[in-house]
Amino acid sequence: MAESVVERLNRNVIAAGICTGCGACVALAPTGGAALIETAEGPLPRFAPSAALPDLAWDVCPGRGVPYAALYRAHYGCVPDNWLAGCFEAVRTGYAADPVIRRNGASGGVTTQVLTHLLDTGRIDAAIVVRQGVPEPERASPVVARTAAEIQAAAQSVYIPVAVLSILAQLQPGLRYAMTCLPDQAAVLRRLQQAGHPAARQIRYVLGPYTGTALAPGAIACYLRSKGVRPGTDPVASLKWRAGEWPGYMEIVLASGKVFRTPKVYYNFLIPFFVTQASLQGMDFANEFCDLSVGDAWSPRFEALGGGHSVIVTRTKEMESIIREMESQGLLVTEAADPLRTLEMHGHMLDFKKRGSYIRNQVRRRLGLRAPDHGLRPVPLPASRVAVELVIMLLFAVGRTRVARWCVAHIPERVIGPLFNRLRLGWKALSKPTKRKGLGTLAMQEVAREG
Ligand SMILES: Cc1cc2nc3c(=O)[nH]c(=O)nc-3n(C[C@H](O)[C@H](O)[C@H](O)COP(=O)(O)OP(=O)(O)OC[C@H]3O[C@@H](n4cnc5c(N)ncnc54)[C@H](O)[C@@H]3O)c2cc1C
Ligand code: SF4
């Protein structure tokens, strides 16, 4: 007898460790047929044994891979001219004109300002955003924001996995929504829309961050242990990932009133130990299936100016005209940018996703492990680039073991934070010539996907 969708997802994706926790299958399950369980690596779906999921859940599951070439054609009518940027209308740098939204935002507050404008102008009835602290301080969930204040309360990046698409099952028929999504979720959402899924079609605007790496939730306990807080002794009362002045710091307030703050560059030490599998296997950095993609505008000029600056990419004509409208109303402060120059701000991560994930997924397959198949092969792919990736893979493989996680939790953050930052910058400088070689002319060759 043929395997059911539940059996296939359980065996080939969830048990295989390549579920991204997007939440789509949970939304597609019949009522009571699926739930999300919280694990140390992030949310995972759990199905009732008798649940009958539609074939659509199997077809769109990003753990199996995203058929990018077909998706670009179905959504944009063509594949991108530039495979690093994706299909786009215009690229700018800028920030929200409202100083409070700008300051509270992860980079320039642009996402929050645009969502607020969509609501204020009656284009949407509500926005689906992600909020840290729901249902409890260390967790994060998608929430439906019906007022500007609720949208603004959800500003900032959440670096732990959130099953955003699970909320599709709770949308109110007839209402129009905007939604913030990570790249794998935006791709699934587009595929659901193409398949005519009613709730997915209620999402009128998709906004999303450039997405490098996310952290397994266990990173929070590790960080606290490195600050000398033993598990279970002083619960977290609140957590912000990008508090204060851009680029911001992680801020954790404990029930006892103790406050810990660590600059973003220093808590990056958690990445090799807690990076999620979804971050390693996804090919999309610039959130190429959003109407609006926003990232940090990393550049010496903006970093010297301070205050929060974003890279803003419009990918549809309608979103481009909304951004122009906001500029003319003084809601956004922007500068036109050369799309190719802005790519240089993120060369390292673009390479990590476009070439790195391809190599990592190939290596997994060679080792007999399952890996998503995106049907694209990066060209050129020099042997030196493969060699660099093997070193990175080895570091992640060792870092993610229980022993390594235990060790790092017992090194004081004031030591490991700056030390890791120096090592990271050193490795970046060393590997830069290899990682940038051929990146400027990178193309993606279509290859047949596995079944
Ligand atoms: C996991 C992750 C990794 C990232 N990596 C990079 C990187 O490597 N390089 C880079 O330039 N930028 C990265 N970003 C993007 C950056 O941190 C900012 O989110 C982006 O610049 C938008 O800033 P903003 O001020 O416009 O956002 P804000 O105005 O603060 O709004 C952010 C919006 O995104 C929503 N949101 C936050 N987290 C999530 C999430 N996990 N899933 C879905 N929606 C969410 C919030 O609800 C809010 O509505 C990352 C973001 C995330 C979440
Ligand atoms: S990747 Fe998404 S659709 Fe696939 S099993 Fe995981 S939660 Fe479900």
Layout: helices, strands, pairs:
Elements: H1 5-14, H2 24-28, E1 34-39, E2 42-47, H3 55-60, H4 68-76, E3 90-96, H5 99-104, H6 110-120, E4 126-132, E5 140-145, H7 148-153, E6 177-180, H8 183-194, H9 198-201, E7 203-209, H10 218-226, E8 236-243, E9 249-254, E10 259-263, H11 264-267, H12 271-274, H13 277-281, E11 292-296, H14 300-305, E12 310-314, H15 317-328, E13 332-336, H16 339-344, H17 347-366, E14 376-379, H18 383-399, H19 402-409, H20 413-436, E15 443-446
Parallel strand pairs: 4-6, 6-7, 7-11
Antiparallel strand pairs: 1-2, 3-12, 3-13, 4-5, 8-9, 9-10, 11-12, 14-15
Helix pairs in contact: 10-19, 17-18, 17-20
Residues 105-112, 129-130, 154-159, 162, 164, 180-182, 209-212, 214, 294-296, 310, 346, 349 line the site of flavin-adenine dinucleotide (FAD).
Structural notes for this entry:
The chain has 451 residues and is an alpha+beta fold. The chain folds into three domains: 5-63; 68-215 and 278-344, Aspartate Aminotransferase, domain 2 (3-Layer(aba) Sandwich), CATH 3.40.640; 346-446, no CATH class. It is built from 20 helices and 15 strands. Strands 5-4-6-7-11-12-3-13 form an eight-stranded mixed β-sheet. It has a three-stranded antiparallel β-sheet with strand order 8-9-10. Helix 10 (218-226) packs parallel to helix 19 (402-409), helix 17 (347-366) packs across helix 18 (383-399) and helix 17 (347-366) crosses helix 20. It is globular. The model has no long low-confidence stretch (mean pLDDT 95). Flavin-adenine dinucleotide binds next to helix 6, strand 4 and strand 11. Residues 9, 13-14, 19-25, 45, 61-63 line the site of iron/sulfur cluster (SF4).
